[in-house]
Design goal:
This protein has about 400 residues and is an alpha/beta fold. Helices cover about 40% and strands about 15% of the residues. Helix 11 (about 260-280) runs parallel beside helix 14. The protein binds pyridoxal-5'-phosphate (PLP).
């Protein structure tokens, strides 16, 4: 059996779906673009998204000539609420994108009902949510269409990669045909990815976290290594020339291996999240995760601090590997928001959260020891944490 068939078989079995429901792409954003396209999104249409996302999401919408409409999010799961979404629906709205954020599942049933009521399409941005479940169903199989990213920092990783999932057979056929029409990544791209995967296997030790993070950002900014976004994607809304690509064999092979490791990976994430919760639960600060409807997989463990730059400085000194997701409502953009139709100042909760959120790490490279040190570091700076009653909403 070819690596392609094998990967499709394993991924679809993992999600409990037919193999035909799956589309495979070079990146998650390509899958999103494809879903919007086969759903018929065209110039003048509006697509509703949370005001706390990654810039590649509004990019995919804008590449189709459509307009992203941002909805403010709530601090409990960093997701938008259905009532607020409904207020933003107009006669031009075509699609709602509900987003799993930090591996915290959104409450999807109300979105399914809302989409049905207004005859809209519903996509789940499940890029953070691989392997969790909603009301007992695997994440990514609740909305009529979903997409995963298997990029470096996502819970289940193939270096770069994107997976689409469609419940509707017609939609699934359309996206598969579209996938088949795309080019495969060329020799240079494939080999660069392969080299980076190998380097990562050997290099990513927590002791080197801050140096490697800086080096990685420098090299991606200079275009020397394949960062997850090219400069053009962060500066404007021109689709990069090599954007529309299928998934390569290297990614599929890596995907099979990562899938075999998934249960251990997930158990590790949930264990570290539980450790953080236990260490911080007496502080009366907002902690992520407690929803009755989902099993979360915690790609990151978000916390809210008063002075983020100060905390990052201290963390670097003490070699605590803190994360900086999402430091903007359209991460990682810090200026020129109007290019993405983002109305800065209009989403006070999302903007507050993106100014104050930090994340503790949960990935398999973080040992229990590092996790305990991270929790102790946060406790030592507990005056920096916002208590629940101090949040301005
Ligand atoms: C990572 C991410 C994406 C895009 O995934 P890629 O595979 O990098 O294209 C989309 N949405 C969110 C919220 C993300 O964090």
């Amino acid at each position: 059996m070819s690596i392609d068939s094998k990967y499709r078989e394993k991924i679809s079995a993992f999600l409990g779906l037919e193999e035909t429901a799956i589309g495979l792409f070079w990146k998650g954003r390509v899958g999103l673009y494809g879903l919007l396209q086969v759903m018929g999104v065209r110039p003048g249409d509006e697509v509703i998204i949370p005001a706390f996302t990654c810039v590649v999401v509004p990019n995919a919408i804008k590449y189709l000539g459509a307009t992203p409409v941002y909805v403010d999010v709530n601090p409990d799961t960093y997701n938008m609420g259905p009532e607020e979404v409904e207020k933003h629906i107009t006669s031009n709205t075509r699609v709602i994108i509900a987003q799993n954020t930090f591996g915290l599942s959104p409450n999807l049933d109300p979105f399914v009902a809302l989409a049905h009521k207004h005859k809209l399409r519903l996509i789940e941005d499940c890029t953070h949510g691989f392997g969790g479940s909603y009301q007992g169903q695997p994440n990514g199989t609740v909305a009529e269409a979903s997409f995963f990213s298997t990029q470096w920092n996502k819970p289940y990783s193939t270096g770069l990669g994107g997976i689409t999932v469609c419940q509707d057979p017609q939609l699934a056929r359309q996206i598969r045909n579209w996938e088949a029409s795309l080019e495969s990544p060329g020799f240079f791209k494939r080999n660069l990815l392969q080299a980076q995967l190998m380097a990562r296997d050997h290099l990513l030790k927590p002791a080197l976290y801050w140096q490697l993070l800086k080096l990685y950002r420098l090299l991606s900014a200079k275009g020397i290594i394949t960062g997850s976004s090219s400069g053009g994607e962060l500066e404007g809304i021109q689709m990069p020339a090599d954007y529309l690509m299928q998934m390569s064999g290297i990614q599929k092979k890596r995907g099979l291996k990562a899938l075999a490791d998934w249960e251990a990976n997930k158990a590790h994430r949930q264990k570290l999240a539980a450790l953080y919760t236990e260490a911080l639960s007496d502080l009366s600060v907002p902690l992520p995760g407690d929803t009755p409807y989902a099993s979360h997989t915690y790609i990151k463990y978000p916390l809210l601090v008063r002075d983020r730059d100060y905390i990052f400085g201290e963390a670097e000194k003490e070699r605590v590997p803190l994360g900086d997701w999402m430091l903007s409502p359209i991460h990682p953009v810090r200026e020129g928001f109007e290019k993405w139709d983002y109305p800065y100042g209009k989403n006070p909760r999302a903007e507050f959260l993106s100014d104050h959120v930090i994340n503790l790490q949960t990935d398999p490279g973080i040992s229990l020891d590092v996790a305990r040190r991270s929790a102790a570091f946060i406790r030592n700076h507990k005056n920096q944490l916002y208590r629940k009653e101090e949040l301005p909403f």
